[in-house]
Structures are given as C-alpha cells and as structure tokens.
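Dear colleagues,

As part of the handover before I leave the project, I'm documenting each prediction I ran so the next person doesn't have to rerun anything. This entry is a single chain, and its sequence is reproduced below.
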Amino acid sequence: MLQAIAGVWALLLGVGLIMLGNGLQGSLLGVRASMEGFHTSITGLVMSGYFLGLLVGSIAVPKMVARVGHVRCFGALASLASTSILAHAAFCVPFAYLPIRARLETLDPTLETAASDNAAAIADLTTRVEDLSAQIAALSDRMTELEKAPLADAVPESVRQAYEEELARLQDSMRAQRAEVEALVENAQQMRAAASAEAAETQARAALTQILSAMDNGQGFVGPLSDLRATGVKIPAPLIENVEGVASLADLRADFPPAARNALAVSRGVGNDSVGGFFRTQLGIRSLEPKDGDDPDAILSRAEAAIEAGDLPAALEEIGTLPPEAQAELATWVAQAETRLTTVEAAHGLMAELNSN
C-alpha cells in the first residue's frame, strides 16, 4: 500500500515540475522575442507552434504509450523537451523556434495520460479506505457482542483469560487499522488539494498570457479576465479598470508624430525670429533623429527614439520636461501611454507572483 502511494507521489512531482517548466518557458519566449526585435506577426506564428505540437502529440503519443508504456514514453519525451528548451538559447531565429515549440508540446498528451493514471490510483486508494472502514466496523460490532456476552460462573479461568486476550488483540488491531485509515485519508486529501492548486495556477497563467497578448494587439480581454478571476487569484486594479483594452505599442508609435508636431508648433509660437523659423512652424518640420539639447525639438526627438525602442518610461520622462503648452498638446497621448504602462506592469507583476509559487 505504501509502495503504491510512493509511486503516485513521484508521478505527481514529475508532472508538476514539467508543467511549471513549460509555463515558465511560454512566458520567456514572448519576452525573448520582444528583446530580439521579432515582428509581432512572427512572434504569434512562433507561439502557435505550441498548438501545432499539441495537435501532433494528441495523435502520435497515444500510439507510443500503447506500444511501449507511459513510463518509457514519458521519459523519452521529457528528454526531448529538455533538449528543445536548450535549443532555444542556441538558435535565436524565429523559424527555428517554431519546430522547437512544437516538439515541446508533444509532451502534453503524456502528461494527460499520467494524470489519468493518477486519478485511477486515487480511486483505488479510496476503495481500499472504504474496505478498511467496513472491517473496522465489523470488529467494533464483534467487540460489542463479546463485551455483552455474560460469563457463567462455571467457565474455567483459562477460558476467561483466553477471552480477555482475544478482546485485547481485537482492540489493538482496531486501533492500528484506524490509524492506517486516517493516514490514508489524509494523504488522499493532500493529493487532491495539491492537484487542485496546480490546476488553478496553470489556468491562471494561461489566462494571464491571453491578457498580455490582447494588450499587445490593442484588444479587450473580458473573457481571459473572467477565467483569471475564476481561479481565485487577486486581480490588480489596473487590469479590472482597463478590461476593454489599452493602446498597443504600435498605436502609440503611430499617434506620436502628429501629436509631437502640434506640441512643437505650440511651443514655437506664432511669432518667429527668422524666415527659417517661420517655415519650420508652418510646415511642422522637426528632427527625426535623437539629438542633444533642452529645446522642445530635441526633447521630442529623444522621446520618439525611446518610443521606437519600446521604452515608454523614458519617453514619458522626456515629455515631462517640455513647456506646459507643449505638454497640453500631448496630454491625450500621455494618458494612453501611462494607462498601457501601468496595466502591462500589473500583468507582468502578477505573472511573476504566479511563477514564484
């Protein structure tokens, strides 16, 4: 009995470690793709390799399990998954990531098979607990009958002593079996609680990944937020307040040039000291490359460079040094950028909290 429990415990630990690693890898790939400058379409294609591998694995892995057993299949695919994770660091090319992601996800059907075996083991454990409870009830009834049975005066001392020894033996046996049943019930409850907690964390990470993807595309995330709330995770206020969506980084990049021209025109004023200044004001001419200086044109050029690099905090810091009239022209853009920044930071903070558990 203890051997069976030990086997189930090792299986649960292996499944939990692989699911944890897979969740961390999914989050890391999105961040690494952004750092390497992959286009959002290419990043989406790379991440879709997950589902390609899941589809192929759901077809191929059951046949492999039927042929060699889930233990060998699990070990082989776990080794393949480990190698694929290392390959991500060796080949930083978008279309090399796609087949690697697909190979990783062939492990998912094996995990599902292992989870099914775990459920069967728990069911068997429950049945054995019920059988032991029935045996204890029968022993208790037998002891009650023995205690109520009168001893005749003519019963020899040896018979009375044998009766008392049998009664003591039955009491000891009942106490031992009760302790064993209580231990089995406690272990089963702990296994169920651990499985439920792991499932909730996995669902929360999946919902949070969908929320981050929606924010990257400038879309709302009502559905994923509902899924995240169902897991019992405490949701940060920015995610609740901006559930209809935030401006994507691409939208902020597209909206900045006209707002910057308006801000520059206001800061230059209607009067000009030279013909060149007049034409720069009328035509909205401004610097497109970052340059040094504290004049509005130089500040806006550095802010735009930071936006192109995806560094919104640096861009907002530069805009904060503009004259008040120029900041007023950029107020709408700044509000959108700050909303995106606080919402994305809240989502990444929650993801880090989930991954640390």
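The chain has two domains: 1-197, 249-349. Residues 270-284 have pLDDT under 50 and may be disordered.

All the best with the project,
I.
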